[in-house]
């Protein structure tokens, strides 16, 4: 079975809930490391002849259009990750619409093609912000990948596998964060901190098990800054420092192992054949 491979294309200072992330007027002062880090991801993908979906921040598309063109030329799918990397529950509906629209225009201009997918910064669709799906459908987005079927990060009642959701502007596909059942809860393991904590063999076995037993595709996600041990570190409280920087050196070898042992495709193609 094919699984969805995804990259959230942002730079080292895009950490939600920090002053560095939220005050975007300061962003021009920061060193840009996104191109060289994304090139590391691109060369791994090329080595294993694998295509992925890149959820691109509108701000990055405007600043680094050549990088977006390189990604397109290599055959990857381009989608959006918001313009200013704001969590949806921190925005009003009008502010969210403005941010998503601006991101779509910036990314489409850099890519020279239409985008169909959206992923919210920090998976921030909650029960209270389900209006975001209406806004996305209104903007012509065909699938979202921002919902998490977990109590703390999202909402436990959210469906755990790809499905369609009715909006005021027609149906939209949802490809939620991949999780597996642990007693009454579920647990994530295919990207970010959970992937950096889980042993490699465990991640591989669990993905194969979900493919075989549930007959469902999984999604794997990485960020370019996870391939950059030398990136400047943002001052964070201890728990968040752990979340963002723990065991970062394990991302690249785990990612490469998954590329070697599983078959992946961009998200749009997987949803197209469900
Ligand atoms: Zn992000």
Can you give me a brief rundown of this structure?
The protein is an alpha/beta fold. Helices cover 39% and strands 16% of the residues.
Provide the residue-averaged pLDDT: 94
Number of E strands: 11
Query: What is the annotated CATH architecture?
Result: Alpha-Beta Barrel
**Ions, cofactors and other bound molecules:** zinc ion
Q: Helix share of residues?
A: 25-40%
Which homologous superfamily in CATH is the superfamily?
A: Glycoside hydrolase/deacetylase
What's the end-to-end separation, in Å?
11 Å
Discrete helix count = 11
- Unreliable stretches covering 5 or more consecutive residues: none
Derived from helix and strand composition plus strand pairing, the structural class reads: alpha/beta
Q: Report the portion of residues in β strands.
A: 15-25%
Described by strand count, sense and barrel closure, the largest sheet is:
5 strands, parallel
Compute the CA-based radius of gyration: 17 Å
Query: What is the total domain count?
Result: 1
CATH top-level class: Alpha Beta
Name the shape in a single word.
Answer: globular
Give the SSE string: EHHEHHEHEHEEEEEHHEHHEH
Under CATH, the topology can be stated as TIM Barrel
Explain what you see.
By secondary structure, the protein is of the alpha/beta class. The protein has a single domain, classed as TIM Barrel, CATH 3.20.20. Helices cover 39% and strands 16% of the residues. The protein is built from 11 helices and 11 strands. Strands 1, 2, 3, 10 and 11 form a 5-stranded parallel sheet that branches. Strand 4 (117-118), helix 6 (131-138) and strand 5 (143-144) form a beta-alpha-beta unit. Helix 4 crosses helix 5 (93-111) and helix 5 packs parallel to helix 6. The N and C termini lie close together (11 Å). 42% of the residues are buried. The mean pLDDT is 94. The chain binds zinc ion. The site of zinc ion has 6 residues, from loops.
């Amino acid at each position: 079975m094919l699984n969805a491979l995804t990259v959230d294309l942002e730079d080292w200072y895009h950490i939600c809930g920090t002053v560095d992330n939220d005050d975007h007027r300061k962003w021009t002062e920061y060193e840009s490391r996104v191109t060289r880090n994304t090139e590391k991801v691109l060369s791994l993908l090329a080595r294993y002849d694998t295509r992925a979906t890149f959820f691109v921040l509108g701000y990055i598309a405007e600043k680094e259009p050549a990088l977006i063109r390189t990604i397109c030329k290599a055959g990857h799918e381009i989608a959006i990750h918001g313009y200013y990397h704001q969590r949806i529950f921190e925005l009003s509906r009008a502010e969210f619409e403005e941010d998503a629209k601006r991101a779509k225009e910036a990314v489409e201009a850099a890519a020279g093609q239409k985008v169909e997918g959206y992923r919210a910064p920090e998976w921030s669709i909650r029960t209270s912000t389900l209006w975001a799906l209406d806004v996305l459908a209104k903007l012509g987005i065909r699938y979202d990948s921002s919902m998490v079927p977990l109590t703390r990060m999202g909402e436990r009642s959210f469906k755990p596998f790809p499905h369609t959701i009715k909006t005021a502007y027609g149906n939209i596909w949802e490809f939620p964060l991949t999780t597996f059942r642990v007693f009454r809860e579920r647990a994530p393991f295919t990207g970010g901190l959970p992937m950096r904590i889980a042993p490699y063999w465990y991640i591989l076995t669990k993905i194969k098990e979900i493919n075989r037993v549930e007959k469902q595709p999984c999604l794997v996600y990485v960020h370019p800054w996870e391939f950059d041990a030398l990136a400047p570190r943002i001052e964070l409280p201890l728990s968040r420092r752990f979340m963002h920087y723990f065991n970062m050196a394990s991302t690249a070898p785990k990612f490469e192992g998954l590329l070697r042992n599983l078959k992946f495709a961009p998200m749009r193609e997987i949803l197209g054949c469900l």
